[in-house]
Amino acid sequence: MREVMLIMLLFITSISVKAQNFSVEQKKVNETITALFDGIAELDFLKIKKNATRDLIVLENGAIWNTDTLTSRLEPLKKMSFKRTNTLNFINTEVKGNAAWVYYNNTAEMTINGKQRTAHWLESAVLVKEDKDWKVKLLHSTAVQPKTK
Fold first, then answer.
1. What pTM was computed for the model?
2. What's the pLDDT tens digit per position in 7-65?
3. Where do the domains of the chain lie, and which CATH numbers do they carry?
4. How far apart are CA 127 and CA 71, in angstroms?
């Protein structure tokens, strides 16, 4: 049993070390994801579009969205008191030529009309390189429920 625990500890340690040693290109991919979510937090639709392909697909809560769906869902927040802070913890980022895929934990601290809430998602994304810029082509979001005691 002790050997199994030691092997598991070594495996977990190797995963966390890998997640912290991103190459320059992997960092650019991660920065694109971060910029997209900055656009969401700022309700800056031009920033969202700048970091996404024209045919972006978002898989959100069992629904298929495009950029227009995403921005139309965010639009009502412009009329409210809204603040969102994202924390993205990248687990793995792979780059092969002009394609990349990434998975990460996304935690958003939000205040909407004075009401605070925290949301947590496990997300994955596929990005493509257009000219010299990485763009999000597919974003899949799975809500992570808070652990109950």
1. 0.84
2. 444 444 344 434 458 999 999 999 999 999 999 999 999 999 999 999 999 999 899 99
3. 24-143 (3.10.450.50)
4. 19
Task: Note whether 34 and 48 are within 8 A (CB).
Answer: no
CA distance 21 to 16: 9
Q: In whole angstroms, give the CA distance from residue 55 to residue 30.
A: 20
Query: Residues 99, 100, 103, CA angle at the centre, nearest 5°?
Result: 155
Q: What angle do CA 140, 70, 51 make, to 5 degrees?
A: 75
Phi then psi for residue 67, to 5 deg, are: -60, -40
Residues 6+ apart with CB under 8 A from 137: 52, 53, 55, 56, 57, 125, 126, 127, 128
R_g over Cα of the chain: 17
CB 85 within 8 A of CB 109: yes
DSSP H or E run through 31: helix 24-42
